[in-house]
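About this split. The held-out portion is used to measure sequence recovery: a designer receives only the structure tokens and must propose an amino acid at every position. Recovery is the fraction of positions where the proposal matches the reference. Here is one held-out target exactly as it appears in the evaluation file.
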């Protein structure tokens, strides 16, 4: 199967520059914050979000070289994403991410919260220095959406009345907003026509939803080693995702297990088994496929180029993660 790295080959050199710049951009005066940044940006990750920004940048510059502002936007996108992960891990009390110790397990919750705040603040400062009010508004909205998504997830823990619509709305706030708004911002920096910037926003919106749904499926179908965290951890923490919401329609008894918060021995294992033996995973796959197809449809107005093709291939690749 094609790898993510090969998908990003049109922007491979750009991503190498980005990785070098990220550590310098953090510019933390305090050694603990520097160590936390080194830990975060050294942990690897796919760099998918900045890759999308760079591919949209190149795809909308029509053969011209991308500008330093495009590069800075990609770096800001990765900083915002990383800041959100640090805060997520504190809220979820996660000890591992990508099989690497989280900042909170390494440095403690207090430092992790401050490190996340610091990254949000630094990204906001660099964002303001892009001197483009529309881009500032787009990315500021993302930071607000992260908080909204996290609050909604917290309030809806173990809530078996959650609808698929509410789940998708929360998934937009937590995942798709950054991809959609940063893709649109890249096109804005290229002075692309307004219609094209909106199409690229919609590509990011649908791709981001599909990506989150697929992640939620993998929580039931992949091993802990592949996930880099314990399998089934979303359900264990009361975060009800698409496979569970669909499975509840077939097996109402899952609601009993969820509502008592898996307090009895074997509750969680039974719930996981019921989800896996339902059509919940298959229906979630169909939902993810729908959003991938929608994402690709919104690329039609982007002129043909290696980057335009890579954006389409990325959506297809995401679907293959479920295979």
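Reference sequence for scoring:
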């Amino acid at each position: 199967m094609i790898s993510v790295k090969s998908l990003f080959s049109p922007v491979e050199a750009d991503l190498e520059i980005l990785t070098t710049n990220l550590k310098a951009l953090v510019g933390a005066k305090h050694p603990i914050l520097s160590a936390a940044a080194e830990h975060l940006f050294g942990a690897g990750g796919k760099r998918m979000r900045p890759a999308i920004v760079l591919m949209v940048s190149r795809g909308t510059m029509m053969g011209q070289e991308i500008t330093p502002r495009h590069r800075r936007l990609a770096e800001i996108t990765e900083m915002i994403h990383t800041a959100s992960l640090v805060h997520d891990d504190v809220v979820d009390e996660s000890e591992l991410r990508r099989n690497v110790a989280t900042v909170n397990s390494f440095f403690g919750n207090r430092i992790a919260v401050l490190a996340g705040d610091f990254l949000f603040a630094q990204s906001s400062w660099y964002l303001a220095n892009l001197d483009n009010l529309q881009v500032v508004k787009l990315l500021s909205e993302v930071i607000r959406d992260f908080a909204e998504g996290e609050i909604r997830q917290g309030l809806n823990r173990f809530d078996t009345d959650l609808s698929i619509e509410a789940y998708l709305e929360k998934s937009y706030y937590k995942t798709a907003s950054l991809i959609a708004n940063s893709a649109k911002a890249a096109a804005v920096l290229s002075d692309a026509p307004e219609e094209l910037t909106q199409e690229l926003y919609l590509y990011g919106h649908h791709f981001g939803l599909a990506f989150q749904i697929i992640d939620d499926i993998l929580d039931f179908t992949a091993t802990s080693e592949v996930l880099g965290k314990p399998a089934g951890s979303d359900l264990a923490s009361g975060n009800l995702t698409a496979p569970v919401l669909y499975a509840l329609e077939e097996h109402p008894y899952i609601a009993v297990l969820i509502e008592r918060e898996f307090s009895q021995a074997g509750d969680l294992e039974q719930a996981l088994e019921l989800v896996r033996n339902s059509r919940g995973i298959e229906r979630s796959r169909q939902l993810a496929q729908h959003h991938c197809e929608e994402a690709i449809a919104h690329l039609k107005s982007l002129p043909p180029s290696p980057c335009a093709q890579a954006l389409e291939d990325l959506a297809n690749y995401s679907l293959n993660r479920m295979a």
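Annotator remark: The chain has 17 helices and two strands.
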